[in-house]
Design a protein that fits this description.
Blueprint lengths: L4 H6 L15 H7 L1 H19 L6 H21 L11 H25 L3 E5 L4 H35 L1 H15 L8 H22 L2 H18 L12 E5 L3 H4 L9 H20 L6 H4 L2
Antiparallel strand pairs: 1-2
Helix pairs in contact: 2-3, 3-4, 3-6, 4-6, 5-9, 5-11, 6-7, 6-9, 7-8, 8-9, 8-11
């Protein structure tokens, strides 16, 4: 992602033929506007997620594939814009790099909380392969669909209207609010998610301009939490370990768990800041006047 986002969006914008959604007429103009294709895409990706997220076996992974197809179709036929963010070239490298950062983020957060006496772990005794397979399938589906909706659709659409900084702020708040219905959620946990996840994943996307990088981070983050036995955003799933919690909720995150810990928030913000700096140096932050179409 050495080329600025604006250049990459504009170079090739006219290479895609007008199909499916006509450019003339009020409906066509509404659909082709950033808010139009954002909402259409979120409905499509969200429907795929809702229908498959809790399915057995590999169903969540199949749902992620359907969600990706819906995203591609909306960008191709409605928004009519190039999709460098889901390019296959370099996808594995980006996903692995993001996954390494997500893994390190959660492990370091858990270790710091352990060091302050907040967590201790024991072997849960659940079947190893069944737990790992279930965690991989469920978290892969969640990571792909959530990143497509929040970073692929919402962030990129709002970025065209208001610029990159405002788009990250808005999507971060929306991401936090989306977790308010989770078990054990509070106003603080929603703010924590907005800062450590919404802002961090937004910064990660602006830095790399790759959905795969954000998906890798999100997937490794959630999967590591589940395997450690800590609730994932308040949702308790079978893990390889069991976590034993003691101390203040501010340290441990309480029933919402690790993502509502002040430790995780501080580490997440510390990771987001250099990503924003790197994105700025690469020309990946669009000011409002350049983002507007």
């Amino acid at each position: 992602m050495h080329t600025s986002s604006t250049t990459r969006h504009e170079a090739g914008q006219d290479q895609l033929p007008d199909v499916s959604v006509p450019s003339d007429g009020r409906v066509g103009r509404i659909c082709r506007s950033p808010l139009g294709w954002m909402l259409i895409g979120i409905v499509g990706v969200g429907a795929a997620s809702a229908a498959t997220a809790t399915g057995p076996g590999p169903v969540p992974v199949l749902g992620a594939a359907v969600a990706m197809a819906a995203y591609w179709a909306v960008m191709r036929f409605v928004a009519r814009r190039p999709m460098t963010e889901i390019a296959r070239r370099g996808a594995v490298r980006e996903a692995v790099l993001g996954g390494g950062i997500g893994l390190g983020f959660i492990l370091v957060s858990a270790l710091v909380i352990m060091a302050f006496g907040g967590y201790s772990f024991s072997w849960a005794g659940n079947g190893f392969f069944s737990v790992v397979a279930s965690a991989v399938a469920v978290q892969a589906g969640a990571a792909v669909t959530e990143e497509l909706m929040f970073r692929g659709l919402a962030l990129q659409a709002l970025e065209r209207l208001f610029g990159s900084r405002a788009a990250v702020a808005i999507t971060a708040l929306l991401f936090g609010a989306a977790h308010l219905a989770n078990p054990g959620a509070t106003a603080w946990s929603s703010l924590a998610i907005a800062l450590e996840a919404g802002a961090l994943l937004g910064a990660a996307f602006l830095w790399r301009r790759s959905i795969w990088f954000a998906v890798g981070m999100h997937f490794a983050w959630n999967t590591t939490e589940q395997l450690l036995g800590t609730p994932v955003s308040g949702n308790t799933e079978r893990g390889l370990l069991s976590v034993h919690v003691s101390g203040s909720d501010l340290l441990t995150g309480g029933s919402f768990s690790l993502e509502a810990s002040i430790v995780t928030v501080l580490i997440g913000v510390a990771l987001a800041v250099p990503m924003f700096v790197l994105a700025h140096r690469r020309g990946g932050l669009l000011p409002r006047q350049r983002a507007a179409r």
